[in-house]
Design brief:
The protein has 9 helices and no strands. The protein has a domain of about 160 residues. It is mostly helical. The N terminus is likely disordered. Helix 3 packs across helix 7. Helix content is about 75%, strand content about 0%. The protein is globular.
């Protein structure tokens, strides 16, 4: 008989090997435990949100004493647009993995390379638009910041599929922990750059650190290596 401790260990066990030797997704969650795991997942998500908010507040207070107000303003001018590009690049990939009846290694690999390719195109486009943003705001610093922030779009494309596989296996706790760790790394990087006197580049470095850390953490938690793009039976529409 499965005990609470066993169920707790299965839910919080950090490492996921999503596919078997046949390439099919391993259904690691017993359907009888879905309700309990979903409830704990919601709790982990709420905890992650609260912790992330507290971390952000502390970081803002510290950075406000190290940076000038205009440093925050000039970076915000750019991130207002970059977040739109990031969200556009993420749309659909997570849902394609989480909600689909069947997912195999080939389908996940195809979606991964599509995500990376899309993020690369958006990154190049946003970086190229840096001069346009600089002219729009009449601030030459905006152009360089746009090119720096564009890296966040590229890095975000790497984490989408492994995080989606973790969510499909209902590993919400480790997904939340990954987000918290990424934010903590971002705060440390931003403060370090600010103390070193890099000005608004401290905020840019912190923004880049979030997707970089999250992508590294995603592949540590999800032991999966994408293969080359090829046709997948799971990609065929259901009859």
């Amino acid at each position: 008989m499965e005990t609470f401790a066993d169920d707790f260990y299965i839910f919080w066990r950090p490492i996921l090997r999503p596919f078997g030797e046949d390439g099919k997704f391993l259904h690691l969650v017993d359907h009888g435990n879905v309700r309990r795991l979903a409830t704990r997942g919601a709790g982990a998500t709420l905890l992650s949100g609260g912790t992330g908010l507290a971390t952000q507040v502390i970081a803002t207070v510290v950075l406000a004493r190290l940076l000038a107000p205009q440093d925050f303003g000039v970076v915000t001018m750019v991130t207002t647009f970059s977040l739109l590009f990031v969200n556009f690049g993420l749309n659909g990939f997570t849902e394609a993995i989480v909600q689909r009846d069947e997912v195999d290694h080939a389908l996940a690999s195809n979606l991964f390379w599509m995500s990376v390719a899309g993020s690369t195109l958006l990154t190049v486009g946003f970086a190229a638009a840096g001069n346009l943003l600089g002219a729009l705001y009449h601030d030459s610093d905006v152009s360089g910041i746009a090119r720096g922030i564009s890296i966040t779009i590229f890095l975000t494309g790497f984490q989408v599929v492994p995080l989606a596989l973790l969510k499909r296996a209902m590993k919400f706790s480790v997904v939340s922990a990954n987000e918290i760790c990424a934010r903590i790394v971002s705060v440390i990087v931003s403060i370090a750059f600010a103390v070193a006197g890099f000005g608004y580049w401290a905020l840019v470095a912190g923004a880049i650190a979030i997707p970089a850390s999250a992508s590294i953490g995603a592949f540590i938690l999800c032991r999966w290596v994408p293969g080359r793009p090829r046709r997948s039976p799971a990609a065929r529409p259901a009859p």
